[in-house]
Amino acid sequence: MMAEDYARDGTVDSHNNLANKNKTGKWKACRFILGNECCERLAYYGMSTNLVNYLQIRLNQGNVTASNNVTNWSGTCYITPLIGAFLADAYLGRYWIIAIFSIVYCVGMTLLTMTASVEGLNPSCDENGCDPTKSQVVVCFLALYLIALGTGGIKPCVSSFGADQFDANDEAEKKKKSSFFNWFYLSINVGALVASSVLVWIQMNVGWGCGFGIPAVAMFIALGSFFSGSRLYRFQKPGGSPITRIFQVLVASMRKSHVKVPDDKTLLYETTDAESNIKGSCKLEHSKTLRFFDKAAVEVEGDHVQGLISPWKLCTVTQVEELKSIVRLLPIWASGIIFSTVYSQMSTMFVLQGNTMDQHIGPNFKIPSASLSLFDTLSVIFWTPVYDRIIVRIARKYTGHERGFTQLQRMGIGLVLSTIAMIVASILEVIRLNYVRRHNYYDLEYIPMSIFWQVPQYFLVGCAEVFTFIGQLEFFYDQAPDAMRSLCSALSLTTIALGNYLSTLLVTIVNNVTTRNGNLGWIPDNMNLGHLDYFYRLLAILSLLNFLVYLWISKWYTYKKFTGRLG
User: Fold this and answer.
1) Is 305 exposed, middle or buried (0-12, 13-18, 19+ CB in 10 A)?
2) Which one of 156, 247, 256, 514 has the fewest CB atoms closer than 10 angstroms to its CB?
3) For 426, which DSSP code?
């Protein structure tokens, strides 16, 4: 076969041979990855979308406790990807990490289903509510955190593994890679659509055992879909511990803190051949920013011991640029935390707000408040192809950019939309509370105001996701060093974790401050007596300030540049 028939990005096939572009990768491999992601997200959202209600109903927890437990658990789901990403990049590769952690995920889903259906594991309930024992609560949270660990191996690796199926050195395949991230996020929301509509209704009307059992089955199907495409996949070889390489640059820089960096970049140390000495990575071109770290690549007497170079004393330019790339990503990464705090409200405050409203469609059918998140999903499903097929083409005419907007511009638009979503949610709550006061409905469980007034805030959050979350996925994959892509994908996901933790912190602070001197506070158990609108306004103000900081950060961002061939 001709050389052009093989991938030029260093990927191999399932037999560890250089990947044949005609037989592996591209969309024929991605359909299994997208199927896996769709089913896994159905499983995840099938048990998480309505989790706050489960904790309230079956574990007898109050609004603040249930809300904080959900956001803490959700946050952990987005911290554990750091574990899976490190193991994937350093030792096992993305394929095996996805496989191993998916099995852990399946165990967690099975155990959660048992806690909701097996006698002795599920709480005893009567007309006065449920009375869970301490052991039942422990087993339930054990199942939840097994799921959090399992999803930690999947989240940072699946999107990167899918992108690996397209050769970055082939222009035709490179264009398809950008579309992959859009369709990847669409597959997430197809799964979420089923979860937030059908599964939430089953949980509230049929039973929690069945409502959690179906997501468990979906997770086993996800695992089967992933293994089915094994012979078609392209695999990036792990490049060794990225954490070790980062610390080597830090140590070498500190040791040479007194050394002057030469103005001529060619005097900095780099391997002489065209390939990088880091497995699975291209050489990176030297950048003029963060020059302190360049000291690690300055050769001095003592770097060579018996003809050998210690990487703790002297590092290549590429290794230094890896660290610089991570440092440059951090401000952009931090700007996503407030956005994720807004996003987390869909599974907490939006649900609690909806619990107080009229949930009927006609005289007999009642829609669970958590099911309103399907409008977020429908928004994503609508806007993803519209963005990929229409908005990009229109924007391209004005910006001249191949993708319509730069990744940073795309994320910025999402930050603006999330701010508007919080303003809209606040306005609705003001209208709802005025309605309560006007008709003295303070003690009414459901006020006669349709829950569908919440649709605009869900729809706006969904639109913001298409711009920010998908842009973030693509940005962190593109700007990550080749041998650190799983780790950088995990880093982008930690914004969701920290957003959830920040939500917990804000709710806790707000609750402590506003309940002083016997006051009911902004978020009491009876929402008709509270001021959830103030909490939404607080998030809107934080989102606006975050956007202004983001504008300044993005203005000074320097994109990475390649040189040479893959190592």
Assistant:
1) exposed
2) 247
3) H
Q: Model confidence over 162-187: pLDDT tens digits? A: 988 988 777 778 777 778 888 888 88
Cβ contact 463:387 at 8 Å: no
HSE-CB at 29 with a 13 A cutoff on CA atoms is: 26
CB of 452 closer than 8 Å to CB of 359: no
Please tell me the distance from the alpha carbon of residue 560 to that of residue 286, in angstroms, as a whole number.
9
CA distance between the termini of the chain: 22
pLDDT at 479: 85
- Tell me how far apart the alpha carbons of residues 94 and 17 are, in angstroms, rounded to a whole number: 17
Which residues, in sequence order, are bridge partners of residue 305? 308
pLDDT at position 1 is 53
- Planar angle of CA 527, 63, 505, nearest 5 degrees: 105
Q: 97-126 pLDDT, tens per residue?
A: 999 999 999 999 999 999 998 888 888 888
List alpha helices for 284-391, DSSP H.
317-334, 336-344, 349-354, 374-386
366 forms beta bridges with: 360
Q: What pLDDT does 562 receive?
A: 59
Residue 62, number of CB atoms within 10 A of its CB: 12
Cα 51 vs. chain centroid, distance in angstroms?
Answer: 19
As a whole number of angstroms, the distance between CA 499 and CA 343 comes to 8
- Listed in sequence order, the residues at least 6 apart from 245 whose beta carbon sits closer than 8 Å to its beta carbon are 278, 311, 315, 319, 322, 323
Please give the residue that has the higher pLDDT: either 146 or 192: 146
Q: To which residue do tokens 């499903």 refer?
A: 381
Q: Answer whether residue 278 shows pLDDT above 80.
A: no
Give the residue from 70, 142, 51, 157 showing the smallest Cα distance to 493. Answer: 157
Say what angle helices 63-77 and 26-48 make with each other, to 10 degrees: 160
Closest CA to 36 of 106, 121, 91, 88: 106
C-alpha radius of gyration, the chain, whole number: 25
- Calpha distance 367→204 (Å, rounded): 9
Task: State how far the Cα of 468 lies from the Cα of 488, in Å rounded to an integer.
Answer: 16
Q: What stretch of H or E contains 548? A: helix 532-555
Euclidean distance between CA atoms 444 and 452, whole angstroms: 19
Phi first, then psi: give them for residue 58, nearest 5 degrees.
-90, -30
Place of tokens 């399946």: 106
**Strand, helix or coil at 12?**
strand
Structure confidence at residue 144 (pLDDT): 94
**Long-range Cβ contact pairs of 533-537 (< 8 A, separation 24 or more):** 533/426, 533/427, 533/429, 533/430, 533/433, 535/349, 535/506, 535/507, 535/510, 536/345, 536/349, 536/422, 536/423, 536/425, 536/426, 536/429, 537/422, 537/423, 537/426
Q: Record the pTM.
A: 0.77
Provide the pLDDT confidence category of residue 43 given band limits of 50, 70 and 90. very high
Strand 562-566 to 282-284 pairing:
antiparallel
Give the separation between CA 421 and CA 379, rounded to whole angstroms: 13
